[in-house]
Amino acid sequence: MPEAKVASAHALSYLPGFGNEHMTEARAGALPVAQNSPQRTPLGLYTEQLSGTAFTAPRAQNRRSWLYRVVPSARHGAFKRIPDGFVRSAPIEEVEATPDQLRWNPLPIPERPTDFIDGCVTLAANGNAALHVGAAIHVYVASRSMKDRYFYDADGELLIVPQMGALRIATELGVLEIAPGEIAVLPRGVRFGVELLDATVRGYICENYGALFSLPELGPLGSNGLANARDFLYPVAAFEQHSAPCELVAKFQGRLWSTELDRSPFDVVAWRGNYAPYKYDLARFNTMGSVSYDHPDPSINTVLTSPSDTPGIANVDFVIFPPRWLVTDHTFRPPWYHRNVMSEFMGLVKGVYDSRAEGFVPGGCSLHNCMSGHGPDAAAFEHATSVELRPQYLDHTLAFMFETRFVNQPTRFALQTEALQSDYSQTWSALRPHYGQDA
Length: 439
Known about the structure:
Elements: E1 14-16, E2 22-25, E3 46-51, E4 64-69, E5 80-81, E6 102-104, E7 120-128, E8 133-142, E9 149-153, E10 157-164, E11 167-171, E12 174-178, E13 182-186, E14 192-196, E15 201-208, E16 233-235, E17 246-252, E18 255-261, E19 268-273, E20 278-281, E21 302-307, E22 314-321, E23 324-326, E24 343-350, E25 365-368, H1 378-386, E26 392-394, E27 398-404, E28 409-410, H2 412-416
Parallel strand pairs: 9-17
Antiparallel strand pairs: 1-16, 2-19, 3-4, 4-19, 5-18, 6-25, 7-8, 7-28, 8-15, 10-13, 10-15, 11-12, 11-14, 13-20, 17-18, 21-22, 22-27, 23-26, 24-25, 24-27
């Protein structure tokens, strides 16, 4: 991917504020004044509106941006089907779902050079991509930057969680750089390319088919806490000026398609609006917790939520378990044993998760579907019930959860890969009865 010809003062300047109406131009005077689509656009640019919601969506939820570009995105050849590789979309019917608890080791980096698209593997999905409900869960492993190759997803927005290695994500609306400990969200339909800033990279992706991610309501917490809108960063306008054949890959209705362009699609010289890629540093999350007793529900750690048509039940939540203080008294501090109507997919970016003594390692992941019992393993239970309770700071850890309203249907790859831990159910086999013993 050729280096962006950036006309702004700083290639990696960012615009703060979640969902704000941003205005940015890579060349002075590129943005029209007082209207969005004048008869003659400044600098001879084309006007194009990119809508992430219906035109008539309520003002508070309506997201769209006006792009001022060299050539409209409509100019391209016919799309042709290409192999899907290991990418799948809901509904997945190639294998049956199982009520078993599932856990995977980190996927290895492919031996042959592999870019972000070819290195994307679907582990599970739910809902229906065509109906814009549910989500898919992917893992990416890559060892090569995308070269003269671009991608967009018409099925959902992509929440990217790096676990190993940093990424430079160039998009139509500007450039983002993210490393482990940060996330990026790429809106549905936005074209992008991924450059590796390290030799090999690995991470997780939540492909959200449903309502766009938004900040959760704070309710009784009041006006402060969790993720602050000011800490979400949007790219400034940047554009590429080159004409050369390149490939555009589209994910549409669960399938991959390809067409050839005669120039880079990153030719947006200016844009204004609130529908754009953004990044967030998870270290800025203001973690809430109990300061008296009992372990709070994990929903108190929600960074972003995709609401559903049922109030209080998310299409998908993105929840994190970052470094934090544990101070509760007379309390079993790890997550309690539980069965949920919501389904939980967990990943580990770094460190150790406090309810697992072993087996759950950075780059690995687990899936506990609707009403599948889970909780601390035997070693974690014994430690938590015998340790002297003092204020404890959990450091060098970062786990996360994609929690969904629907059952996650694993793919055939997920159930047949050598990375699947066949003995995961034995995690709880060493738990023994304590009934009748003095508390």
